[in-house]
Design brief:
Blueprint lengths: L13 H32 L7 H13 L2 H21 L6 H11 L7 H7 L2 H19 L6 H33 L2 H40 L1 H27 L5 H78 L4 H28 L5 H16 L3 E7 L11 H19 L6 E8 L3 E9 L2 H6 L15 H9 L5 E8 L2 E9 L4
Parallel strand pairs: 1-2
Antiparallel strand pairs: 2-3, 3-5, 4-5
Helix pairs in contact: 1-4, 1-5, 2-4, 3-4, 3-7, 3-8, 4-6, 6-7, 7-8, 7-9, 8-9, 9-10, 10-11, 11-12, 12-13, 13-15
């Protein structure tokens, strides 16, 4: 006997309905566990071709107890459910896992007649919930780290299966009457709903796949939170089922109730997603803040240790200079003039140059920003290769240091200013380039000083004025163009005695 759940009243008593429902669920459970045992057994044998036996066994069973139209509906539904899981590709399932899923979802259409009258369409959600979690468990051997994907598949497949069942009730009579053929009515109904379901699934995958994977990865990190997907889903299904039962017991359900309560269940299941996502984000931001504090403390400790090592290296470098000078005194006491000449012209100048270069490069490591550190390392190395004396002073608070502007623009500006200073200083035998970096809570300054020639002093320094030749000397114009892009940066340039001073000030509090 087939019960019309959208009819006007009950056809059997509540006792008979309950008995038949238990009987139907019992039959499903027997087939479910039989297929599960076969699947686990086949997995141990590691023969993928055995996966074909599962659907064959189930197809023979469903064909034997169903009429042709019912078999087509059952087969189509199981195929759509399995195809959706494969299409989404959210889990690394193999052919045996898909065979199990298809076989379990392939059951006679009339199997849940009494259960449908007792619980409406809610039985669909219960069946899918158990099947999905079981498939994932036997497929990847664990649920931890995959609860969100299980929950998402549960929602998608529930919507698909519920829509398929509704279409069988409402669309089938329309197509059957239109074509005056029951077979064509069933085929058109299945094709139409399958096309709609697959198109929606394609859209969801293309639009939200990355977000789904990212949320699932958060579940792997926060395992205590991701369990709420499983627990809340169970609670929602149980509460909605209990809410529906009085309508069946009191014989009050009608078409509106049969449609409304499953939709309410789906709405509640979907509503838990924003809540748990909020929990994920809260936990993530809490970890981010903790990591930031840990990073801040580590940076402070690192630069304190670096400063201590730099001071220690200063003492070592001072001692090394004294050692080389003392060695020079011993060399002078010898009668080997060739050795004296080689020591004072080659060894001693090289050692002093190397020690000075080491001192400069060690200071650079006090700069927290790696690209900026690499930039100063390059410029100072270039200056030393050109035999230009460099004085570098860095007085910064590492955990409060900010570039304040785009790092590319900053290095372009500083590169032009430093290159100009080096090119001018190389003309003077005792010239020197001084670079000083300071920062505080509100600003960061880069002060570049260099000795200038008398000719440059009289001629003046301004954009467009150059002695480099035609087509050159555009550096300061480029600097001015870059400065115009920011309202938190000021460049002060002036000549004091025989020193040209360029002070680049970036105000962090104006960002």
């Amino acid at each position: 006997m087939i019960i019309d759940i959208f009819g006007l009243g009950p056809y059997i008593s509540i006792t008979e309905l309950l008995t038949e429902s238990i009987n139907e669920l019992g039959i499903f459970c027997i087939h479910f566990f039989f297929l599960l045992i076969l699947t686990l057994f086949f997995k141990r044998l590691s023969f993928n071709w055995l996966a074909l036996l599962l659907p064959i066994i189930q197809i023979i069973y469903v064909w034997s107890v169903s009429i042709k139209s019912e078999f087509v509906i059952s087969f189509s539904l199981a195929f759509i459910i399995t195809a959706l899981v494969k299409l989404l590709e959210l889990l690394p399932l193999n052919i045996l896992d898909y065979s199990f899923l298809f076989s379990v979802m392939l059951f006679p259409s009339r199997l849940f007649n009494s259960t449908s009258a007792l619980l409406g369409s809610l039985w669909i959600f219960w069946i899918l919930f158990c099947v999905i979690y079981t498939t994932v468990k036997i497929g990847i051997h664990k649920l931890k780290g995959s609860h969100f994907i299980c929950y998402f598949l549960f929602i998608i497949l529930s919507l698909a299966m519920y829509s398929f069942n509704l279409s069988a009730v409402f669309l089938y009579p329309v197509f059957a009457g239109l074509f005056e053929s029951s077979a064509l009515g069933i085929i058109c109904t299945i094709i139409l709903i399958a096309i709609i379901i697959f198109l929606i699934t394609f859209f969801v995958k293309n639009k939200f796949y990355c977000h789904i994977v990212r949320l699932n990865s958060l579940g792997k990190k926060y395992s205590k939170i991701e369990c709420y997907f499983f627990e809340f889903s169970i609670i929602i299904l149980a509460l909605v089922s209990l809410f529906f039962l009085p309508f069946s017991i009191l014989q009050l359900h009608n078409i509106l109730i049969m449609l409304f309560i499953p939709c309410l269940c789906l709405a509640l299941l979907c509503a838990q997603m924003p809540f748990i996502i909020l929990l994920f984000r809260t936990a993530f931001y809490k970890d981010s803040v903790s990591f930031y504090e840990w990073k801040k403390d580590n940076i402070t400790s690192y630069y304190n240790e670096l400063d201590r090592n730099i001071n220690l290296m200063k003492e070592i470098r001072h001692d090394i200079k004294n050692i080389f000078f003392t060695m020079g005194n011993f060399v002078d006491q010898s009668n080997d003039n060739e050795m004296k000449d080689f020591f004072w012209k080659k060894i001693y100048p090289y050692s002093v140059e190397t020690i000075n270069q080491s001192e400069l490069l060690s200071k650079i490591y006090q700069i927290p920003d790696e690209p900026l550190r690499a930039f100063f390392n390059l410029k100072i190395s270039q200056a030393l290769n050109m035999k230009v004396s460099i004085d570098l002073q860095i007085n910064i608070i590492p955990n409060k240091f900010q570039t304040g502007i785009d790092i590319i623009d900053l290095t372009r500006i500083l590169g032009i200013l430093i290159d100009n200073a080096i090119e001018e200083t190389v003309k003077i035998s005792d010239g020197i380039v001084s670079i000083k970096i300071n920062n505080d809570n509100t600003s960061c300054s880069y002060i570049i000083k260099n000795t200038i020639t008398e000719k440059t002093k009289k001629q003046g320094i301004f954009a467009g004025n150059t002695s480099k030749g035609e087509g050159r000397g555009k550096g300061l114009k480029i600097v001015n163009q870059l400065l115009e892009q920011y309202n938190n940066i000021v460049l002060n340039s002036f000549v004091k005695n025989s020193t040209y001073v360029q002070s680049l000030n970036i105000f962090i509090d104006k960002l």
